[in-house]
Amino acid sequence: MTQPPPDARAADPTSRTGNVAGSTSATGYATDSTSAADKTLVPDVAPVLDGITGHGDHLTSPATGSGGPTTVTGSAGVVEPVQGWDRVRVIQSLRAAAAREREAEVDQYALVAAAADVYSWVDNAAEAADVYAGGTEQAWPPHVVHGERLWQFGSDGTPEVAEFITFEVGPALGVSPDAAAGLIADVLDLRHRLPRTWQLLLQGRVLGWVARKIAQTTRHLGLTAEITELLDQHIAPFLEGWTPRQTLARVAMLIAHLDPDGTEQRRRS
């Protein structure tokens, strides 16, 4: 069998050892093995870029037909551009990755809201029978049973949810139960107290962290459901055109206008 030329590995999109001067270590880094003094570690992005290839036709390199990316370490330890990935393609792919991230974030918010729906009652028939004489249908579902309660994570006007939901949502998202509780509170506040902002969030027209910050502000200031509803009416038509900084500043101004007594009381306290 004819042996490939020495630099064939650098042109092979399936090779994880696409560095002319050395090889790829078990840690996924390309190493220059010319000498101990010249040895360098270069992040091997080839496997990641290989995974990106195929998300769209525009990701296929005209030169190679497969877009096979490879990180190459030159003799001086300088990372050369990956084959088939010019500046335009990299930025286009980065933009597409950011869009997928935003879509996934919206999916998470929607699923947290769905979780609040399915965890809206405590399911424990045996304990309910002890708490409510005989466990009659009229007493079902129970409001409180031993070990778990229905808890209002959000503010005024939001429904109660089984408190142990945090031990399901947290691990599912890779966050702590406390962080999950904060996320659930924000989602419930947006969905039930700021419904127009919630719809904009689900449509991807407002950033998730900005929408959550609005919800947190209304909750931490103790705004009533009525005042929060008015705030939502005022800001929703303009949120998409405001920067995050403008949004938070104008939310603060509107709260002072809509709740002057509460604002004055908080200023004095």
Polypeptide structure, described:
The chain has helices spanning about 10, 45-50, 85-120, 125-130, 165-175, 175-195, 195-200, 210-220, 225-235, 245-260, 260-269; strands at about 25, 30, 40-45, 70-75, 80, 145, 150, 160. By secondary structure, the chain is mainly α. The protein has a 3-stranded antiparallel β-sheet with strand order 1-2-3, with no helix packed on it. Mean pLDDT is about 75; it is low at about 5-45 and about 55-75.
Main sheet attributes: strand count, strand direction, barrel closure: 3 strands, antiparallel
Helix content: 40-55%
- The tally of helices reads 11
What would you call the shape? flat
Provide the β-strand percentage band: 5-15%
Which spans have pLDDT < 50 for at least 5 consecutive residues? 6-43, 54-74
How far apart the termini lie comes to 84 Å
Mean pLDDT: 76
Q: Which structural class best describes the helix and strand composition? A: mainly alpha
Oligomeric organization of the protein chains: single chain
List keywords for this structure.
single chain, about 270 residues, mainly alpha, three-stranded antiparallel β-sheet, flat
